Amino acid sequence: MGQRYLVGVSGGVDSVALLRGLVGVGYRKLVVCHLNHRLRGRVSAGDAAFVKRLAVELGLEFESGVHDVVRLAKENGQSLETAGRAARHAFFAEVAGRRRCRRMMLAHHADDQAETVLMNLCRGSAGLAGMAAETVLNLPEPVPGGGSRTRGRLPLLLIRPLLAVPKKTLLAAATARGWKFREDASNASADFVRNRVRNEVLPLLEEIFRRDVRPALGRAADWAAGARAFLRDSAAPWTVQEKLPVREVLALSPALRREVLAGWLKARGVPDLSASVVQTAESMLNPADGPVKWNLPGNRFLRRRAGWLWVECVPACGAGPG
Amino acid sequence: MGQRYLVGVSGGVDSVALLRGLVGVGYRKLVVCHLNHRLRGRVSAGDAAFVKRLAVELGLEFESGVHDVVRLAKENGQSLETAGRAARHAFFAEVAGRRRCRRMMLAHHADDQAETVLMNLCRGSAGLAGMAAETVLNLPEPVPGGGSRTRGRLPLLLIRPLLAVPKKTLLAAATARGWKFREDASNASADFVRNRVRNEVLPLLEEIFRRDVRPALGRAADWAAGARAFLRDSAAPWTVQEKLPVREVLALSPALRREVLAGWLKARGVPDLSASVVQTAESMLNPADGPVKWNLPGNRFLRRRAGWLWVECVPACGAGPG
Hints:
Chain A has helices spanning 13-24, 42-57, 69-76, 80-99, 110-123, 167-177, 192-209, 214-239, 246-250, 254-267, 275-283, and strands at 5-8, 30-36, 61-66, 103-105, 134-142, 150-159, 244-245, 293-296, 300-305, 308-313. In chain A, 37% of the residues are buried. By secondary structure, chain A is α/β, with parallel strands linked by helices.
């Protein structure tokens, strides 16, 4: 509590509950950060004024920024979601740099988490994964007064203390304590896919399964995060090796074998690792059927000889042979 | 292919494609099994006649049964889904016993799998899990001619060779080859939750994410099955121990620690293992905070002393102290 934290505050019930909750348990060195996305016209300006008054009331420092996300999206040919994320990251980096503070609390809660789990699952890129309670964001560090110029990377630790708390609990706390917040601020998300998951998919699932399915989604993602960490840790002693012993890797449990191959190829500098690259590497372990040489992305190829598997480069690919 | 298999055939495109596909690649000793659930009135009788003709055409043996699932559900106060499953299992057991065949192929495909993954996830009981390509079903073995009397258990291996094949591939194969099948037979499912997931949830997700989300659901479940098997195998050396060494278990990766505790408690005969029981056992590992004795389900309790954790029974619970 003695440490200083940035706190992202939209003015909606989630972030108001986070901020007042932190103050209530004794946090004092908080910097209230509000980004006006300009998505809601005059209402957006009202949100910003509300958050500023809240910071003053609580005796906290205040930082605000304005990014016209609709204009940015048009200019850069991005979705509102992508432009919104870029705007937030630029704002975070600017504030973190100016305040020399590398820790930020965000108000993501269990309902947000369930939506993220479902979105990741349907997109197929991350498998079953939600947000982590803590993430390090590596932001391009802006040059002070240098406009959009940047220098180096600025690591910012994002902390989500409410990730296991359902939205209804936050709403009940705010109601019980008479905390004011901006209505609907949380629904002004530029993420239309998330809005549809929240407003259409989850209510439909709740109706069909006759229960709130969010806790189950959160638990499944927690299990997957634990299983993923265990697999990664178990694979670590293998991925550092220059050459892999074919027979020993073949004897591993299939899930660990795939984790080892993926981690090892990544550590050998192979870019754009897809499931099919890992699958082909796996097929090369089989001395009877698999090929003994195979092209990899990034001007590399995979070889098997005399019971070993290794990555070779075409000259000038930047890594020596295994 | 020399082995004999029972094959479940409803008459819909999935099971017709499975049966004709198996015959096409050389399987001959197949017993076509059709259960009339009596869910579709005269159409159900037509399905049964169609499947019988198909078996005759292919020169295969044929087994059929009739269970009035609506009546069974009413009599037993069950859902149609539960009554339907019980009827299928009774039919499977009867045929497997009479034919002395312990292997059965089923036509579940990748679309069924995606639905199952979503259903398990939303129900929260199984986490992220689909159907396995092979499952052993332990059925109550009927006494021949003994009505509903049973003797012992009959293990039946269920094999799902199409689990990675999308329904559209099966439909395309049937169309290309002019295979006849009964329209809509596959939609006569007594499982209303599954029907709603198929007809409402998956189309909504496809619209929102602008892609068929089924492959991603299947891949995530495959990953989870592999991770689960690796965790289970890694936990096995611990779960057979009568007493657990607290310090060593505390040092395990969190996911493995929970797997070890769950498997160990189960092996010690603790019934009704829930996540909260495992969580409490985990909290007892902490010498500073945790309690040293805690009541478990099934007249057991968990004790910690001198660096060890073990399960004790109240007298007559059927197991000796650890």
